[in-house]
Amino acid sequence: MRLQVLDKGHGFGTKVLFALIRTASRQPVLDVVKLVRYRSDFYGGPMSEITQEAMRGPSSWSVGDRELMAACVAKANHCEFCTKAHAAVATRAYGDNKKVSQALSNPDTAGVGEPLRTTLILLRTLTRNQIVNAGDIREVLNAGATPQQVKDALAIYYSFEIISRLADAFGFSVPSHEAFEAGAKYLLARGYR
Amino acid sequence: MTHIEPLQTALVHRILNGQGKAPASERQSAFSNIGLSGPVAKLVEKVVDDPAAVTDDDIDATKATGLTEDQVFELIVCAAVGQATRHYDAAMTAVAAATKGN
User: Structural domain of residue B54, as residue ranges?
Assistant: First the structure.
């Protein structure tokens, strides 16, 4: 973590919480948790509300689909931390590691079914090119997505476009597979608040 | 049916208009990526265009101009939220265009 305040500048109550997390999970506290818990009224609180709504709010996309979309946006942004973190959640949600790894390697040929496949391609295009047009949106609609499903996917894009940029800018440490697994277990059970 | 717009508005309002360690005008400049100069402009530009290229030196150079870590934290957050907000709004405009008349 490039800023000391994000690593060690938390209040006493948050430091106690971190100690409990370390004890219960037997893993280090993930840097994303340190970020959202630092001066949480400024960024972490309002951002967590958005992420919770996008990832766990009402939607016809499954939790696994949404976690895969988050990992797809992170991968297109070259954010190793967020890609691994949300691939772990998607894998746990689907119970299918091959499906997730294939989709992240190449959404064009992934066997995830429509309209998810075309939606992943849209998110990759938007993240890489920083723009999509009405024609790009129509391709997803023609693949069977409803307008609301497209909007739901864009909400996930919004959240992870921010988070993956911050992960790289602040220099999040990429922890062990076991630490990501512990984080995935928590996110599936408790969500993002 | 996901509905993030009021939450998005609340986030943007908080980081730009709420209490902060950095002046509101600098937070707005980082959000818009307009009107900054020197090391902080370079840092914000990287957050916007290529966050993986941010280095320890970028942070150190920004702090050397007199900004505190709390101010750097706020400006990086504003830059990331600003860029995502512009792209999200443009994509939602594309959705409206694609579904017009349906």
Answer: 4-99
Q: How far apart are CA A179 and CA A166, in angstroms?
A: 20
Of B7, B51, B56, the CB nearest to A165: B51
Contact of B81 with chain A, judged by CB distance below 8 Å, is answered with yes
CB contact under 8 A, A157 and B91: yes
B23-78 pLDDT, tens digit per residue, is: 999 999 999 999 999 999 999 999 999 999 999 999 999 999 999 999 999 999 99
Q: Which of A6, A46, A136 sits opposite B10 (nearest CB)?
A: A46
Q: Which residue has the tokens 């007199």?
A: B66
Question: What CA–CA distance (Å, rounded) separates A174 from A193?
Answer: 22
Other Cβ atoms within 10 Å of A111 Cβ, number: 9
| Residue the block writes with tokens 């696994």 | A64
Assigned token pair, A40: 């949480």
Among B14, B50, B34, B90, CA closest to A157: B90
Number of independent structural domains in chain B: 1
Cα dihedral A111→A115→A120→A124 (10° resolution): 130
CA neighbor of A10 nearest in space, from A26, A31, A27: A31
CA pair distance B98, B30, nearest whole angstrom: 32
Name the residue among A39, A154, A166 with its Cβ closest to that of B76.
A166
* Residue B80, min C-alpha distance to chain A (Å): 5
- Residue B24 tokens read as 């509101």
What is the predicted ipTM?
A: 0.96
pTM (two decimals): 0.96
